[in-house]
Design a protein that fits this description.
Rossmann fold; 19 helices; 18 strands; 551 residues; alpha/beta; 6-stranded mixed beta sheet; 43% helix
Length: 551
């Protein structure tokens, strides 16, 4: 049964067609991954479903009684509230019924009401009706359901009094998700719910989505999450939506097979069209030479056949290769020991992050550094870069090691926000402007963006610029702090391919499990102030630790 039906939808924004004539349906138990490059219109589609964006044409019809809950990309919880207060905010329907119940309660305490039989009867009838509605909305279970959801997503009672201002971006998303899910809407629309979550939180989110009783539509660049939870993938690209059954891996395989089949059919059809065109030309030549009407009729008949193919839309399009950034790291042979940590200790005040850390990274190794948020992973990077000094221990880099650093907060661009992307890359390596333009265009920048101040760029554009700068620096040790944050899936895949060919060592902090599986050959976990090493990728780490069975 379809709970959402979208029919021939068209949305324009600032003169640009986001998508046109889009048709789609969502079933009542579907788990749909909505994927596509940045700027394809995924968020606009979700906002159109909830009525925040008005389509230029077409319709969106929700099955009668279908409620929706929308989790936006950016969450801003009310200040001066606790975590529990923010999570417990009642849905509008329940809040309205509760307000009527409170009013009835106040009226029943009024002498003018309880001493007047007719007024008392009327208020009691109103209270009875409101109580029935309250029960129908499952109001008595709302508070306990909020606490159950908070526990499921990793919060405990010690977190309830935390002020909303102190919460991380990922925690704010989870709190709003609890508020939405407590109302049990028929459809949850989640726009990048996994952003800024650590690995344990992501696994809890997956469990929540898998067990949700209604339909869920998820915009996410986390391919591992999409593999774990979705039953369908809807790809939005170039204004068109294409549906696939199965999880992300099934989608990626089927998409490639469809594209291969389409290209084969295109080649065969073009060959047939060329044959028909050649026959038409031959009959037209004969008709002109001997004025034979039969040859002219044959030429006209074949020409009409080709015209009808175009009118019916039977002409097969050529497969257009997906445009993505062209990344290449030109690493080089460095010291055998690229990086070594010896008896390292670090903390702030009475808060000790880690003690007696020992770690060796050799040339050519690819290591993924994981651990819960707050364990000290980014601090460890700052120590390696010399931006902080350890309390104890030593950090040694090889004599021919050149470090290249990617910051998840785009710190490497902070001094350049009023300059242009062209200025930034030409500062790293002087080159003619034309060469710099050609280089940056490979990172999916538009020509006009190259002369805009960097502060005008989006998060994804700043991420691609950081990678472009990093490639110009030619390091042989890459320190990557959440390099796939803000990148769409095609850009992430391009980065993975570039890292595969990199001749150097890599130490990367990442919560992108698919990226870790494809990129690293060792996982090192920083937790409770200690490092533990596991050979292989993220999936191997899960098997070694038994984390799959424990959740």
């Amino acid at each position: 049964m379809h709970v959402i039906n979208i029919d021939h939808l068209t949305i324009n924004h600032a003169g640009r067609v986001i998508f046109e004539d889009l048709t789609w349906a969502v079933g009542d138990k579907d788990r749909v991954g909505l994927v596509g490059p940045n700027g394809a219109g995924k968020s606009s589609l979700l906002k159109a479903i909830i009525g925040e964006v008005t389509p230029d044409s077409g319709s969106i019809v929700l099955l009668r009684g279908t409620s929706t809950g929308y989790l936006p990309q950016l969450v801003d919880l009310p200040p001066s509230q606790t975590l529990l207060q923010a999570a417990s905010k009642l849905p509008p329907e329940l809040a309205e019924v509760e307000a009527r119940l409170n009013l009835c309660q106040a009226q029943l305490a009024d002498p003018a009401v309880y001493s007047n039989d007719s007024k008392l009867t009327r208020v009691l009838e109103q209270q009875e009706k409101a109580l029935a509605e309250y029960d129908a909305l499952d109001g008595p279970r709302h508070a306990s359901r909020v606490r159950e959801l908070l526990a499921h997503l990793g919060f405990d009672e010690n977190d309830y009094d935390l002020p909303t201002e102190s919460l991380s971006g990922g925690q704010k998303k989870l709190v709003l998700l609890v508020r939405l899910a407590a109302a049990v809407p028929a459809v949850l629309l989640l726009d990048e719910p996994d952003n800024h979550l650590d690995l344990d939180a992501k696994r809890r989110l997956e469990s929540f989505i898998q067990n949700y009783p209604g339909a869920v539509v998820i915009v996410s660049h986390d391919r591992y999450l999409l593999d774990e939870v979705v039953t369908h993938v809807a790809e939005l690209e170039d204004g068109k939506l294409t549906s696939y059954a199965g999880n992300y891996t099934a989608y990626a395989t089927e998409r490639e097979l469809r594209r291969l089949k389409q290209q084969q059919m295109y080649v065969a059809q073009q060959k047939r069209i060329q044959q028909i065109e050649a026959a038409i030309h031959e009959w037209e030549m004969k008709a002109r030479a001997d004025l034979n009407e039969r040859h002219a009729r044959q030429a006209r008949s074949r020409r009409k056949m080709l015209d009808r193919m175009e009118e019916r839309g039977d002409v097969i399009d050529k497969v257009v290769e997906r445009r993505t950034m062209e990344a290449q790291f030109d690493g080089w042979r460095g010291s055998t020991k690229a990086l070594e940590l010896i008896e390292l200790a670090m903390g702030f005040g009475d808060d000790l992050l880690f003690l007696d850390l020992n770690f060796l990274l050799r040339h050519g190794e690819r290591v993924g550094l994981i651990g819960p948020n707050g364990a000290g992973k980014s601090v460890l990077f700052r120590l390696i870069l010399g931006r902080m000094q350890p309390l104890e221990g030593r950090i040694k880099t090889g004599p021919s090691t050149r470090i290249g650093y990617y910051s998840q907060e785009h710190e490497t661009l902070s001094d350049w926000l009023d300059r242009t992307p062209l200025d930034r890359v030409r500062d790293v390596r002087p080159m003619p402007e034309g060469e710099a333009v050609a280089f940056l265009l490979k990172f999916q920048f538009k020509y006009e963006q190259l002369r805009l101040p960097i502060r005008a760029l989006s998060g994804g554009e700043r991420s691609r610029l950081q990678l472009a700068v990093l490639m110009q620096e030619r390091p042989n040790l890459l320190l990557l702090d959440e390099p796939t944050n803000n990148l769409d899936i095609p850009s992430t895949e391009a980065l993975e391919s570039a890292l595969e060919d990199f001749d150097g060592a890599i130490l990367t902090i990442s919560h992108d499990r698919y990226f870790l599986d494809r990129t690293v050959d060792r996982v090192v976990e920083l937790d409770d102030g200690a490092l533990s090493s596991f050979p292989g990728g993220y999936s191997d780490y899960l098997l070694a630790t038994g984390r799959v069975a424990s959740l």
